[in-house]
Amino acid sequence: MFLLLTLFFFFxxxxxxxxxxxxxxxxxxxxxxxxxxxxxxxxxGRQAGPPATLKDTLASIGAVEQTxxxxxxxxxxxxxxxxxxxxxxxIDSIVLADGTQAGSDPKSAGWTGxxxxxxxxxxxxxxxxxxxxxxxDHDEDLLADFIPFYGEEELFDQAALQQEFRRVxxxxxxxxxxxxxxxVRTFRHDETTCSINLEAGVHAGxxxxxxxxxxxxxxxxxxxxxxxxxxxxxxxxxNPEMLAEGRRNLEQxxxxxxxxxxxxxxxxxxxxxxxxxxxxxxxxxxxxxxxxPGTGSAKSANIVGxxxxxxxN
Length: 313
Known about the structure:
Blueprint: E1 28-32, E2 35-43, E3 46-48, H1 52-61, H2 66-83, E4 90-96, E5 115-121, E6 127-135, H3 158-174, E7 181-190, E8 195-203, E9 213-216, H4 226-230, H5 240-251, E10 256-259, E11 263-267, E12 270-279, E13 282-286, E14 290-292, E15 302-304, E16 308-312
Parallel strand pairs: 2-5, 6-8, 9-12
Antiparallel strand pairs: 1-2, 2-3, 4-5, 7-8, 10-12, 11-12, 13-16, 14-15
Helix pairs in contact: 1-2
């Protein structure tokens, strides 16, 4: 299932004046297509290691033209700060080796220097003040037994928040709500307390029950055998465990070299479990078999003749 999550973050970048790169401070060296770029990164006036995403971006832009550098730095730091909960962060200054501030003249000529300093003021890191989850389309509280791993009083971390939302969706999928989705309804940040208040609405949808099993890729095995072989029965609740078990059962038949992960297919308005398979190769032997009761006093009976045999490998 896909998790649809839209968060709107606000980031301000305020260029300052003056400042040259202090030559005595240590710096990070970044290889770019035109040579080596030296970057010094400052947080609240003190030198620190630059975010890995900033180094990677500067290395990948393949140019050191002033406008390109300025825009790339603002974009990557904006994403970095908001992803880690610094919603009051500022970029104070972007300074080039010759003293030219990136952004002071967007139409200026390309920058030919190799030194760059970035001064930032991240401010406080926000925490989760409240995180409310509400199921909107069911009277029953489907999340009553959900155990949160991330929430109130935790430092804001966008990746951790998205992981928690994915856990909510998986919780509902296990109960048979395979089409569940989650949307962030409110996202408010309080600058006085450095906290974030979130409200998310969950649409669980209908609980899906299987009408049957569909298997694609059959050429030698009878399709009518597949539902029994999978172990999936009509009206079974569709959840990840059922899909995985059906796949294992098909693999254990020995008929298939490959069995795909189970998927939900809606056919004529009803949900079916769908697999794609690659059958084992089969060698054929034609035989004809018969029974010979034997002759003479010994009366020794024998099976003779020819028939048909199929060997899978």
